[in-house]
Amino acid sequence: MAFSLLDRQSAIDPDSPGHVPAHFHAGFQFSNLQFQYPTANSPTFNGDFNLEGYAGQSLAIVGPSGSGKSTVIALLQRWYDANGGHALIGGVSIRDYALSAGLRSHMSLVGQEPVLFDMSIAENIAWGSEFSATIEQITDAAKQADVHDFVMTLPDGYNTRVGDKGGHLSGGQKQRVAMARALIRSPKLLLLDEATSALDSTSEVEVQRAIDRAARGRTTVTIAHRLSTVKNVDRIVVVNEGRIVEAGKHEELMQMRGIYADMCRQQNL
Ligand SMILES: Nc1ncnc2c1ncn2[C@@H]1O[C@H](COP(=O)(O)OP(=O)(O)OP(=O)(O)O)[C@@H](O)[C@H]1O
Prior knowledge:
Layout: E1 28-35, E2 45-53, E3 58-62, H1 69-76, E4 84-89, E5 92-93, H2 99-103, E6 107-110, H3 121-126, H4 135-144, H5 148-152, H6 171-183, E7 189-193, H7 201-215, E8 219-223, E9 235-240, E10 243-248, H8 250-256, H9 259-266
Parallel strand pairs: 3-8, 3-9, 6-7, 7-8
Antiparallel strand pairs: 1-2, 1-4, 4-5, 9-10
The structure holds adenosine-5'-triphosphate.
Membrane topology: Multi-pass membrane protein
Subcellular location: Membrane
Protein name: ABC transporter domain-containing protein
């Protein structure tokens, strides 16, 4: 279940004080994790959830609907606190970071539905840097997200207004502007929750190309139902009933002939 950044309600004060690391180390570790949503009747993770994300590597989390994939991202961003076990980033408990300055400023999320504002393309991208970016930084982020060439075809270039909710742009163009917005702050941790799942296959290829490039050498967590989009990540984990049941590269998981291989077969991969 993917929630957009703007829709989230969290009990945690974004200005809460805490650790502001000089160098944010994006490797993370969940061990014996327990977590239950405040309004849920049963836990999502029951103390048997163990997951490590290695710094500089791309990780994909796959598994059945409702298995807790998006919850991992919500916990990394500290929209909620774990109820038990350990949730660490860079060896530090997630709850010990200063929420905005220490934690969230080092990560970017790209979700299924990009939230663009009725402003120019430049402003929509600069939003990711809290409007502190120069035009060079904006164009650089746009190039990384493979949207610069498209922007250059527009009569007003970066000054083009995208319309209400980005309505003047196609789904793929919107998503690449959202990628540029995510990349402008050079996030140490890039979180992608079904970032290509709402796109047609041509747009999916374009956005996926930008994602693959952005993920190179960066700690990245990808959630995707379409397994073709995660074949090339460094490590895939399969979550089921609150725990990781398989982990490895695509080829290794295929050889296991387990849940992942079954899911691939269902998708004709
Ligand atoms: N805000 C919330 N409040 C209460 N329960 C929630 C909330 N978000 C998710 N859940 C529940 O927690 C469990 C895990 O949800 P999560 O969204 O992490 O699963 P998912 O694997 O990402 O699913 P999907 O593939 O459908 O997106 C589900 O049972 C879901 O109903």
